[in-house]
């Protein structure tokens, strides 16, 4: 499936959900004792979706990959701060919420890794490099492949 806007990306939607849940978590009174932790986790969680969006809008596969890896790093940073929270006695009653947030961050990281893997194995350089000639060539190649597939199916049916 081709996405035209980053808002359509399931991984971006998941990252937004993570950020919203992190902000709900950091709104708890316990974070008044830990303003540095609050700031760090909010910034890390917000960075996940922002870097997906920025990479998507850049227009080249290499830049997209760069920002997806930054986004993965922010997932790791979010999980790391949550691990610290797990170890602080003040957060003892929030274990299930912390686990849920860590699980969400891990899922996003896996999605980003899979996307990165597919991009690294792609010949597509990105929309910034598309010209009328490359668009035409791509369309012709797709039509050729579809035609060859039809021929193969006809051969198999005989």
Structural class: mainly alpha
Shape: elongated
Indicate the radius of gyration in whole angstroms. 21 Å
Strand and helix order:
HHHHH
User: What is the name of the CATH architecture of the largest domain?
Assistant: Up-down Bundle
Q: Which segments are poorly predicted (pLDDT under 50) over 5 or more consecutive residues?
A: none
**CATH structural class of the largest domain:** Mainly Alpha
Draw up the topology in text.
Layout: H1 10-26, H2 35-58, H3 61-87, H4 95-120, H5 132-157
How would you explain this protein's 3D organization?
The protein has two domains: 6-125, Up-down Bundle (de novo design (two linked rop proteins)), CATH 1.20.1440; 129-158. The chain has helices at 10-26, 35-58, 61-87, 95-120, 132-157. The protein has 158 residues and is mainly alpha-helical. Helix 1 (10-26) packs antiparallel against helix 2 (35-58), helix 2 packs antiparallel against helix 3 and helix 3 packs antiparallel against helix 4. The mean pLDDT is 90. The protein is elongated and about 70 Å long.
Which terms summarize this structure?
158 residues; mainly alpha; de novo design (two linked rop proteins); 0% strand; elongated
């Amino acid at each position: 499936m081709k996405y035209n806007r980053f808002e359509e990306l399931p991984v971006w939607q998941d990252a937004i959900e993570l950020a919203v849940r992190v902000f709900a978590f950091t709104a708890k009174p316990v974070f008044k004792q830990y303003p540095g932790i609050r700031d760090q986790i909010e910034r890390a969680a917000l960075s996940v979706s922002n870097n997906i969006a920025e990479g998507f809008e850049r227009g080249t596969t290499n830049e997209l990959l760069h920002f997806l890896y930054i986004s993965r790093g922010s997932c790791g940073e979010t999980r790391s701060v949550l691990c610290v929270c797990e170890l602080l006695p003040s957060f003892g009653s929030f274990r299930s919420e912390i686990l849920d947030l860590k699980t969400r961050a891990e899922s996003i990281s896996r999605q980003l890794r899979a996307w990165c893997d597919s991009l690294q194995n792609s010949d597509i350089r990105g929309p910034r490099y598309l010209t009328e000639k490359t668009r035409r060539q791509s369309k012709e190649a797709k039509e050729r492949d579809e035609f060859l597939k039809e021929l193969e199916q006809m051969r198999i049916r005989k």
